[in-house]
Amino acid sequence: MGGRLVRARRSPGADLDPQRVPDLRRDGRGRVPAVPRPAPPGRARAHQLPGVPGPLADRSGDEPGAHGLRRPAADRRPVRGVGRRRLRDHPAAREAAADVVAGALAAGDRRVGHRGGRRDRGVVGDGRVVVSTPAPVAGEAPAPAAAPRAFGLDVLRVLAAVGVLVTHVAFATGVVNPQRWSSPLRHVLPRLDVGVWIFFVLSGLFICRPYVRAALGGTEPAPTRTYALRRLSRVYPLYWFVLGVSVLTEAGPRPPSGQLLADVLLLNVYVPAWAIGPITQAWSLSTELAFYAFVPVWFWGCRRLFASRSITDPAARTRWLAGGLVGWAAVALLWRVGVIAVTDTFDYTVAGAVDTRGALLTWLPNHLDTFAIGAAFALWLESGRARALSTAARLGCYALAAGALAAASGALGLPPLFTGFDGPQTLGRHALFLLCAGAVVAPSAAAMARRAPTAGPARAPAATSARWARVASVGALGSYGIYLWHQWVTTNWFRWRGLADFRAPFPTTVAAVVVLSSVAAAVTYWLVERPASTVVLGRAGPVPGPSRKLGRHPELDGLRGLAILAVLGTHVVFLNGGDDRWSLRGGFLGVDVFLALSAFLIGSVLLKEVDRSGTVDGVDFAKRRARRLYPPLVVFLVIQGVVAVALGAAFREQIVQAVLALTFTSNWQLSFGHQPPYDLVHLWSLSLEGQFYVLMAVGLWWGRRHLRRPERAVAALVLAAAGVALWRMYLYRSGVALPALYERTGARADSMFLGVAAAVAWRHGLIGDRRLRVVGAAALAGLAVAAVVATPDAAWLFQGGFTLVAAAAALAVAAAATGSGAVARIGALAPLRWFGGISYSLYLWHLPIYLWTER
To answer: pTM for this structure?
Structure first.
């Protein structure tokens, strides 16, 4: 996300031209020069706006600045006359800010930068003004200013995803059948799969627009490798995660390995018998991927054609590109007619029949005309001919789209399914869907023409409009997750509620699926989508400033006290044969809090060592951990062994347990069929912590060079936790005994990954303290609810629940480390801190003492 950055200051009375923004600094005699000072030799230089003199922002300084750049230390001195007041309060700085913002907006740049998580206000925290424009790639013309997100297109993404969701829920509940519902709306519900056509039109617009711009301007588009990584990281990571969850939680048999591989690679549609995979709607992703591969090749051919024929006039190039899009539509029509001619209408009443026609119509050639509509919008915008539509024209487009949808629903006599159409029905449905999708996208696409550079500053949107734009933007980010998750949510909602297929209530089911799919989309956006994009592309917010040191935080002792009290309470319940005090039954989740807290603390210690020395001293770290863990453990094992033998326990078993405890391997006993004595059964978590210490030390030593990009480190750790969740699902589905699965290192490593991720994020301020306090309080409340409702054999825990609990624990710990907020106040309570201070001894001794008194 390279950008050209400009910093501007001025002294009182200085005339600041928006086209020439000097960098005013104090010279060696304390005066503010009236001309820009050149950058020091050898300093790394960022990109600079044309015609703007002055030194350039770089990453070599030591103070965090806007857009992740750092201000050189020499540039932190106040302007003469400011004294101790903050520079941002100085009238000269505010006047300079207004001039620079006006100049930036006049130049067509709306993206006035901000610092940290602050809103764009023109002036950042210390009075600097940052204006960014895309940095040019070598050999390219400078790209125009990036447009802000289009509100209408974001809304369409959400509506398209919800439309596909509604049509699938309507089919599953049976309301599309006349026996269930006689309303004319039942004909419309199956046709809401027009949302897929809307997605294709939007893809044609967004994917083709940079290539159209490059083709018309005679420049090179983005490198193919960057383009491919961006597209693949957008599609595959979340799809793989949802596919894994779907396969691992599906009640029926797993698909054969060849078919499963085709599903993983999204190649299943090219084998008609495999076209309907575990995620039914994923066929459209296969078509999208084929289009992603087609676009660079097509426009490469267009550039070769323009070069060979010496076509340099943009108008002529526009005509050639428009003709090519007509060719796309012709190919699509020929393909569709050919498929209809060589295949039979699918008979969905025959069990096991293969829908060859339906499979062939999912391929890219059939949908080239749909993508061509979006590409035509891109050409319209980039050619400079686009104009925003009037209100009447917009309403006319929406009326046309509604009419096309109504005609597709009632005029063609289509069955209440998504396939099984004869030739005329297939052609008519596709044509009406093209008309509907094109008409509904046209007003929002035309509105993008208003975002071209203008001669003056744009009018700021009203607060209400901005608020709705943010809501639409968030919904658009989650639309892909909703699209992928809703089928799995629908299936499991039927299972959880005991609903019969085709006989379930539609309103409550669709409401539940919308809500639960949105929650799943939000969770996996942060756990899978965004981390994957960050790891692959390196996207992130501002480059963080100097890392924070953890120091002493009594609030963390309070969280430790809460965790040990929960564990003590749940052991009382279990050892009393399932006492009716059910509110303590889920206290075993306190172990997850222990694991996340230990990972946060130990990770912080190791990260501090990496900051100081550049590496991890494994021997010294092991000595420190041994001094902390072994003395209480050895005393406990000696006394416990003597008492246990005196009470009749086998001496040999006590020796075996002592060896396992001292080598931190007790948690693997159940996996090998060995049941430890009940008074030592709790040592599994101590062994797990010891193994985590080793893994963290080795992992941070191995990845120490990657810690320079903390946002990537956090993303990789979160992705690793998501992988652990899938692995645990696989083991659960494979029939591994739950007690053994509960204690396995690989199945509980998500707590370690998320705890270390929270430590990295907290140290580098990747999450603002205010937001962290709010999220941490919600996470702690969620942990309390989980501790009430959870049971040790609950399937939801082993199918992703433990990962969510670990994430909540890590967020609560990070929130407590801020030192303020609800979580910190709870952790600061003296009784909880006292219990936290003795938590290790309490954990070791509570179970044997309880059993001894019972005997």
So the answer is: 0.72
